[in-house]
Every structure is written in structure tokens, then in C-alpha cells.
Amino acid sequence: MLTAGPARKVTIHVSENYKYHGQSAYAAILDFLFYRAVSGATVNRGIAGFGADHHMHTARIESLAADLPVTIEFVESPQKVEELLPKLQEMAGTGLIEIQDTTVVKPSEAATKKASQPSAPALKREGKAKLMRIFIGENDKWHDKPLHKALVESMRANDIAGVTVNPGILGYGANRRIHKDTALHLSHDRPMMLSVVDTEEKLRAFFPILDSMVQQGLVTLSDVDVIKYTHDYESEGRRKEVRP
Amino acid sequence: MKLEGKAKMLWIHFGEDDKWHDKPLYRAIVEKCRELDLAGATVFRGIEGYGASTLIHRSHLLSFSSDAPLMVSVIDSEEKVQKLLPFLDEMVDEGLIAMSEVEVIKYVHQDGARS
What we know:
The structure holds 2 protein chains of 2 kinds. Chain A is of the alpha+beta class. Helices cover 21% and strands 36% of the residues of chain A. Chain A has 4 helices and 16 strands. Chain A has a 4-stranded antiparallel β-sheet with strand order 4-7-1-8, covered by helices on one side. Chain A has a 4-stranded antiparallel β-sheet with strand order 12-15-9-16. In chain A, strands 2-3 form a two-stranded antiparallel ribbon. The radius of gyration of chain A is 20 Å and the shape is globular. The relative contact order of chain A is 0.18. Chain B is α+β, with helices and mostly antiparallel strands. Chain B is built from 2 helices and 8 strands. Classes of the chains: A alpha+beta, B alpha+beta. The interface between A and B is medium-sized, with 31 and 33 residues.
């Protein structure tokens, strides 16, 4: 939690169209900061600018699809900034990151009390791992967002190796209420199962976050052997994954 | 309802067209689970597969007469799951039932009453 006193202000400069794993880099960074319980962050869109490539980004009327400069700013304790920096450097790619010493005079009121988890080693390609299954309903919400979606974003931000959402067609759970899919798939109260695979350590580190997000449902853990975990980023022309 | 620590997970595989007393088998299984007060059951529909009959099950995008593969997952204590097994044995004519160990991390209701 951010308290009054010395702190660091971090500003990350990227361009609006810059991508991180297929998603806007600024949105990915914002998600990352959000799910790593940073006390607050703001994205500002510039109206014109240029960066290391000396390419002018502008919002002139004739070019509506302009690639505008974007800055993401947040203030956190020096330790927290230290902890987040490696991942931020990776996400910002070719962008600029600056850090200034600052003083918090008055912290914002609703600072969250969630402790963040230090990043643990990534899932190895093979060997013992754990499969976590989370059973929830399609209607379940977290901060006005579908819970299954929020969970996937949260896991991504916490570097969990992978997650898949499986909709069910019929089911019931802790609340005894039947969740059903209708013939035309218009119903949005299907049962949802998320399968997550990672090392036991990584999954256990994620439990406090999971616990705060899942208000009703079932979470189980079982043993699995990872046979293969790989992806050909080169062939898709995307940034190379940093996992070993 | 209390569920924590070691538990059993059942996966029941069969086809969408399978019936039990003129009722879809998957519905009959979920109703039986509720009747036996099991912690929960969820039905999933696959898009393609084959099983005991070696007949390919496929779901057709625009037809309602599909025979897609179905899976029902049931999680509860070993004792409760054992109660369900004789019924499943009788109801599932053609299919597969697999059981594995799981550890329950969380099982909660909306009213906040934890298991």
C-alpha cells in the first residue's frame, strides 16, 4: 500500500499502436499494473510526438488512424517499482521508461491492501506441474467485468503459463442453482471451467489473488506431467517469448 | 455443504444422443447428482471424438440433431462419489468413467459461507 513519504514515479512512453503479445502495449501494461496491485496508474494520450525512430506521430485530421504517443504513469514505493521493472522493460519494448524520485504528501484513500507476488520462474517445458480447475458461472462478475475474463487477464498479468476457459452446457454447484445453456446459445448463465497449468509454486502464489476474485465456485488442484509447452513465435512474426 | 482437502474427480464420457428412460442421459446424471446431494456437476460438449463404440461423434454447427461427445465432471469426497458409482454403472450403457485425485482449494457459496 502506498503511504506518505518518499516514492518513485514511473513514466513509460510507448506508441499507441505498439503491440505486446497481440494486445496494445499500453493496455497490457495497465492490466499488468492493475493485477499486480499498483495503487494507481494513468494512461495519457499525446497529440503529437516523436521517439527514438524519429518518426513523427500526429493526430492531424487527414490521418485519422494516427499512431499517437501514449504515456503510462504510476507512483509506487521504491521496492515495488524495483519488483515491477523487469517485466515493464519487457512490455515497453522499444519505448522509454523513466523514474523520478517523488514524495507522496497524501496517499489516495482507497489504496488496495493486496500484497503482490514476486515473480517466480516460468513453467519448464516438461516435468511435474499442477492442473488447477476453477468452476464458476458465466454470469459471475468481478468489478463489473465477467469473472472468467478478469481471471484470464489477472493470470496473464501474473505470468501464469496458460489458461483455457471451457463453457459447459449444464451444471450446478455450490449454490445448488442449475446453470443452463439454451438451444440457441443466447443464455449467458452457462457453467464455466477454467483449466490452468503451471508449477505448484506459481499457482500457490496466485491463490491470494484468486481468493479475492472468486466469490463463489470451486477450485481444485491435481497433478499433471507437462509433455510439451512451446510456441513458434517466429513464424507468427511476433515478439519472441522470454520463457526458456 | 463442506468440501475441502483431498477429494475425487469423476469424468464421465458418452454421447449427446444417449438416453436414460427417454431423457437425455446428461440431464439424468446431473439430476441424480443433485438427488444424492453431490457438491456439483458440470456438463461439457466436445466438438469431435470417438469412444467405446469407435463411432465418430461430431457436432454440426447448424443442426440440432448432433451427436457430440459429452463429458460430465463431478467432484466430491470419495465417500459421496462412491455412492454415485452404482447408479452410473446402470445408467451409462456405452461410455467411459474415469476417477482421479484432486485437492480442493476453495468451495464457496455466494452468501460468503465458506466450506
